[in-house]
Amino acid sequence: xxxxxxxxxxxxxxxxxxxxxxxxxxxxxxxxxxxxxxxxxxxxxxxxxxxxxxxxxxxxxxxxxxxxxxxxxxxxxxxxxxxxxxxxxxxxxxxxxxxxxxxxxxxxxxxxxxxxxxxxxxxxxxxxxxxxxxxxxxxxxxxxxxxxxxxxxxxxxxxxxxxxxxxxxxxxxxxxxxxxxxxxxxxxxxxxxxxxxxxxxxxxxxxxxxxxxxxxxxxxxxxxxxxxxxxxxxxxxxxxxxxxxxxxxxxxxxxxxxxxxxxxxxxxxxxxxxxxxxxxxxxxxxxxxxxxxxxxxxxxxxxxxxxxxxxxxxxxxxxxxxxxxxxxxxxxxxxxxxxxxxxxxxxxxxxxxxxxxxxxxxxxxxxxxxxxxxxxxxxxxxxxxxxxxxxxxxxxxxxxxxxxxxxxxxxxxxxxxxxxxxxxxxxxxxxxxxxxxxxxxxxxxxxxxxxxxxxxxxxxxxxxxxxxxxxxxxxxxxxxxxxxxxxxxxxxxxxxxxxxxxxxxxxxxxxxxxxxxxxxxxxxxxxxxxxxxxxxxxxxxxxxxxxxxxxxxxxxxxxxxxxxxxxxxxxxxxxxxxxxxxxxxxxxxxxxxxxxxxxxxxx
Length: 603
Known about the structure:
By secondary structure, the protein is α+β, with helices and mostly antiparallel strands.
């Protein structure tokens, strides 16, 4: 643009009072609205600014007039080309002048202005003047940008929010929903869900809860509810939703905003917790054991039904939480004993006691193991005491039976004729019963310090070694047949033993070869004597059998001769005489055998 000397496009005229008033009003309007008007004379190439323009550009109005060059330089460098192009288009094509651009004030501050102008043309449509007005819209522009930034931040927050955020119309139609919400209801695209009724997703049984939530919001009430939904692909979820009303500028409720989160895992955890709690209560209340806790003032905090029953029986009334666990009507000794227990526990001591008493309910003797455990808070301060009374009556009865059984067993072992020993594979003793003293004369201590082979007869050593090696190959609990061997008595004599050995090497409580043996010396001696007698009798029988055969043969021959009936009376008489002689001879032989046998058999 060329710089011209003329200052005004329209020469100033004489001002009357009305003109002054109008000019004052115009100045006030420009100041209040941050407005300014301008005029460009294309014929004379001049520029005119009102006072409002000078104020907007932080210039002194006394600087009038200004030239086109100065006006052009007030435009921001990045917007100058666009401003020139717009002016050319207005002048050449006849479009309306409507431009937003940035100006630079004298202090260097950037401002945004919105300018409107009309072109005054000549007879040949040539542009003569352009008269316009612009307004400082910096604050509006900044407010708009701030609003855009807020909307962008809000949109970013909603889109990244892991919970479902949705806007629903009063009729229950889904208007907006963030991506997390679309994912929850299994919508692949927004159009799959927007415009649809939200109620269609809700479980029929839970519809009343959702409808109440929506209704409250439309009445201006914030509320929350739980309900189940079925996603578009069939997945069932538990949801927890909080709904608030959305209003317009007039305060009218136009829609409902709700934030909903998937609580399926939480509900499952809650259901599991409730189930576990009920199971625990059933277990705790189903036991005869007593469980209770008390505070530092000896007041009952919690207890199972078994304890409440006992405490109620002792008090003579229904026991409840908050009652004192110190019972006075059972005597001073009872009171002081249990108070002492509680004081020890509340002082920080963990301990057990064993109580034996007659049950006030059943009248039977009971044995109980009572545990006291202090309960501490996060600061390790003792706040209460947990107590557990376990019924060990059956255990104690069995224990007493076991003690009696052990005593009977020990009496049998100590006073019996059998010796029980536990050996390792090398013959060393891990245990020897007290009856060893009766059988072999050794004390238990002496026997424990000896090896079996130290007192074993040399002729029996190989066989016993083989038996020990063989028995450990048997399955656990199996035994070898009984066997006889000789052992040296403490007095130096040899005694015969009958032994049965059993493999219990892998038994944790035994861990060895169990040898059960007893003294059979007298029996062995008797058997040996009988065997010797039998041998002598065999010799006598064999010798005398030949002596018996001669008279026996004679008898049989004479009998056969008489039976023929061919003998004369005299011959028959002689035969009978011979028969009598042979019988006497046989009788003498038999008497001799008897005498010899009597000498062999020892009475």
